[in-house]
Amino acid sequence: MTARETVLEVTDLHVSFKSIAGKVQAVRGVNFSLKKGETIAIVGESGSGKSVSIRTIMGILSKNAVIERGSILYDNQDLVTLTEKQYEEIRGKKIGLIFQDPLSSLNPLMKIGRQIAEVYTENYGMSNAEARQKALEIMADVGIPEPEIRYNQYPFQFSGGMRQRIVIAIALANDPDILICDEPTTALDVTVQARILQLIKKIRDTRGVSIIFITHDLGVVANIADRVYVMYAGRIVEQGTCEDIFLDPRHPYTWALLTSIPDMKSREPLAAIPGTPPNMVHPPKGDAFAARNRYAMKIDLDEQPPMFRVSDTHYAATWLLHPDAPPCEPPQALKDRITEMKREAGVL
Amino acid sequence: MNRQEEREVLLNVEHLCMHFHAKAGRRKTLVKAVDDVSFQVYRSETFGLVGESGCGKTTTGRTILRLYTPTSGNIEFDGRSLTGKMTKELQSYLTEHITCIFQDPIDSLNPRMTVREIIGEGLFVRGIHDRAEIDRRVFEVLEKVGLTKEHANRYPHEFSGGQRQRIGIARAIIVNPSMVIADEPVSALDVSVQAQVINLLNDLKREYGLTIIFVAHNLSVVKYFSDRIGVMYRGKLLEVARSDDLYEHPIHPYTKLLLSAIPMPNPLIEKERESLVYDVKTAHDYSTEQPHMVEILPEHFVYGSESEILRYRRELKGDALCC
User: Fold this and answer.
1) Probe site for chain A from B214, B246, B266, B269 (most A CB atoms < 10 A)
2) Is residue A102 within 8 Å of A166, Cβ to Cβ?
3) Residues B171-205 pLDDT 10s
4) What is the DSSP pairing of strand B9-24 with strand B72-77?
5) Which residues of B touch A197 (CB under 8 A)?
6) What ipTM score was computed for the predicted complex, to two decimals?
7) Hey, are the CB atoms on B52 and A195 less than 8 Å from each other?
8) SS3 for B74?
9) Distance between CA B323 and CA B315 in Å, rounded?
10) What pLDDT does A235 receive?
C-alpha cells in the first residue's frame, strides 16, 4: 500500500446547538481523515452526529450551532476559520454534497438541464450553448438515457433514481475533490440503490474523487467503503477498514449493530439494543453507550474510554481493550455470523 | 366448510383487481395498481408481501381492509366475503377482525389524544363504555408491548419513534383481531430500534396466534419475519413460496434480481457482487401465450406463460442435477 495524500483531516471537532432545554452537544470530539480516491463510510443511528459533522464540513450549520473546538483541514486551510465569502469558493466547488431526498434538492420549477448547465455558466463563465453541451455530456456520464429529451423536462417527470442521478450530475459538474453522500440511497428501492451505488463507484474510479458516505445500512457500507467510522452519541467509537469492522469488530456497540440486523439465514431472535440513545443535553459522564451495553464495566460509567489501538488501521474506544480489562469475547451469534461470512466467501 | 385440514385458510384472495382512474391533463389513464392477484393466507401464519415502491403491495393490503372498493375479484375472510356493498354490518365485521399497523408512527397517531385514548378508542367504538374496564385493558396491552402504565396519560410527541410504533401495535392488538395488516411497520425506525420492534411483533405473534400480512420493501426483514412470501411487481403477483424456498430457489427473473440487489453486510463478497439486470419489456413475450400462476414446486407458485414455466422447470432440474 502506498501512502496516499490526505485531502481532508478533521481533528477534535466539537459542535453544539443552543436550545431552550440547554446546549445539545451533538458532536463531541470527532477525528477522521480522508485520503485521495478513498471512500470512507460513517455509520451510526439517527442523532449520533454524523450529519452534523458533515454539515460542519460544508459550512451549512443552522444559526444556533456553535463550533466549540476543533479544526477541519482542507487544502492547507482550516475550514472552521473561513469567512462566508471564502467558503463560497469551496462549498459545492471543491466539496460536493448529495442529500438523501433528491426531490427537495432540485428546483421544481426549473428544467433539469438548466439546473445542471447553471453550474457551468455561473462558475466557469461559459456561454449557454457551451454549458448545454457540457450538461448533456455529464447527463450521459451519470447514465441518463436520452439526455437530449430529458434536458427539457422538469424534476417531477423523473423517477427517484433518475433524480438522484441528476443531483449527482450537478455535484460532479464542479469537478469536486470530495463528494459527500448523506444517505443517498435510503429513499430508493433496492434495485435502484444497487445501480446508484455502482454509479458512485464508477465515478470514484474514473475521476479519483474521495467520498464520504453517510449511511446506517451496513450492507451498503460493505459494498462501497474502504474504511469505516462507527459513530455513537457524537463520538467515533470504532474505526478500521471494512474487513476490520465486519470480521473483527471490537466495540460492543459495533457488535450490537452487526447483530441487530436480520441476516438471511437464521431465525434466532434479533439481538436488539435495549433502551434509546442518550440525551445529548446532558451526555453521560463515562462511555455514552454504557447504559445500553451488556459488557459495561464500572469504569465505563465514570470515565470516557480513549481510542485503543488494535492494529495500524483499526482503533476502538472501549475499556475492554485496556490491558487490565477482563478478557471478553463478542456474542456467540456474532461469531457465528463472521464464520458464516468467511465460509461464504470461501476463505475458510 | 368444516373440512379438517392441517392448515386452515383464513384469507382467500381471488383474482383481485384494483384499478384507479387517473387524469394526466386531458388524457385519462387507467392505473392497474393491483391486477389479478390471488393468494391465500393460512391461520396463524405470517404472509410477507414484497416489491419496490409502486408495485401495489400497500394497495393490496388496503383493499383487503376495504379502504378501497375492489374493481373486481373476491376476498374471502374466514368463510365470509368481504367484497360487495359496504354495509354497516360488514363495516363492523371488518373493524372487529382485521386491524392495521401503519408505517409512520408519527402521522398515524392523533397528536391531541393521550395514549390511553388512542389505544382505548378501539374498545370504545366497539361498545365498551366502562372506563375502568377500558383502563384495565389498556394497561394490560401497554405492558404487553413493553410500555408502562405511566405512559398512558402522555401524548404521542413525548415518545421516541420506537415507542410510538409500540403504541400503534398496542392499538392494533387490543381488540383481539384475527388478522393484522402491518404496512412497513419498521421501515421508519432506526436499525437498533427496528430489532426491538421486530422481536416484539414476533413475541405477540406467538402469544396471540396472530395472522399477519407483512408488507415491506426490505427483503431481509421480510425473510426473517414471514413464513411465506409473495413478490409483487407492477400490480402482479409474480411468485409465492415459503420464505426459505424463495431465497434458496428463486425462479422468476424479477425475484432473482430483487435478491441480487440486497446489499449484504459481508465485505468479503459484497465488493465483488454484480446485481442482475431485468427489463420487464424484453424479458417476457406474452403476445401469444397468456401467463398464469402455476404451482411449479410444492407450495411454490410462479407467474409465467406455458413456455416460460417449461423453461423454469428445466432450470430447476438442471439445478437439482448439479447439486
Assistant:
1) B266
2) yes
3) 999 988 999 999 988 887 777 788 888 889 988 88
4) antiparallel
5) 263
6) 0.77
7) no
8) strand
9) 12
10) 92
Q: Which residues pair with B226 in a beta bridge?
A: none
Across the beta sheet with B27-42, the strand order is B27-42, B9-24, B72-77, B80-81
A228 touches chain B (CB under 8 A): no
Longest dimension (CA), chain B: 66
* Amino acid at the residue A207: R
Residues (pLDDT < 70) of chain B are 1-6, 275, 319-323
CA distance A296 to A92: 43
Which residue in chain A is spatially nearest to B221 when comparing CA positions? A262
Predicted model pTM = 0.84
Contact (CB<8Å) B265/A242:
no
Residue A309 has pLDDT above 80, yes or no: yes
Given an 8 Å threshold on Cβ–Cβ distance, is B261 in contact with A247?
Answer: no
Distance (Å) from the C-alpha of residue A266 to the closest C-alpha of chain B? 7
Q: For B266, which of A189, A216, A344 is closest by C-beta distance?
A: A344
**What is the residue type of B146?**
G
d(CA B65, CA B75): 10
Place of cell 441480487: B260
**Chain B: closest CA distance from residue A199 (Å):** 12
Which grid coordinates belong to B168?
A: 400503534
Cα-Cα-Cα-Cα dihedral sign, residues B112, B117, B119, B123: negative
Domain limits of chain B? 9-280+288-322
Question: Would you give the end-to-end CA distance of chain A in angstroms?
Answer: 25
Contact A306, A315 (CB under 8 A): no
CB contacts < 8 Å between A and B, how many?
125
Interface residues from chain B to A (CB-CB < 8 Å): 52-53, 160, 162, 190-196, 198-199, 202, 217-221, 223-225, 247, 257-258, 260-271, 273, 275
Interface test with A, best of B231, B252, B270 (most A CBs within 10 A): B270
Query: How many angstroms separate the CA atoms of B303 and A346, rounded?
Result: 35
Residues of chain A contacting B52 with CB distance shorter than 8 Å: 189-192
Give the per-residue pLDDT at B158. Answer: 86
Q: Do A270 and B221 touch (CB under 8 A)?
A: no
Cα–Cα distance list, B54 to A24, B50, B96 (Å) = 39, 11, 29
Q: How far is B148 from chain A (nearest CA, A)?
A: 14
CA dist B303 and B211 (Å) reads: 25
CB neighbour burial string for A296-330, b if at least 16 within 10 angstroms, e if fewer: bbebbeeebbebbebeeebbbbbbbbeeeeeeeeb
Are B247 and A46 inside 8 Å of each other by CB? no
Share of chain A above pLDDT 70, in %: 99
C-alpha distance from A338 to closest chain B C-alpha (Å): 9
- CA of B224 vs chain A CAs: smallest distance (Å): 6
Q: Is B206 helix (H, G, I), strand (E, B) or coil?
A: helix
Going by pLDDT thresholds of 50, 70 and 90, the confidence category of residue A134 is very high
For B9-280+288-322, which CATH class? Answer: alpha beta
- Percentage of the residues of chain A whose pLDDT score is greater than 90: 47
Chain B touched by A258 (CB under 8 Å): yes
Q: Which residues of B128-166 are buried (b: 16+ CB within 10 A; e: fewer)?
A: eeeeeebeebbbebbebbbbeeebbeeebeebbbbbbbb
Between A1 and B245, name the one with better pLDDT.
B245
C-alpha cell at A132: 448545454
Contact A189 B224 (CB under 8 A): no
Q: Measure the CA–CA gap between A302 and A101, rounded to whole angstroms.
A: 40
Residue whose entry in the numeric block shows the C-alpha cell 372498493: B69
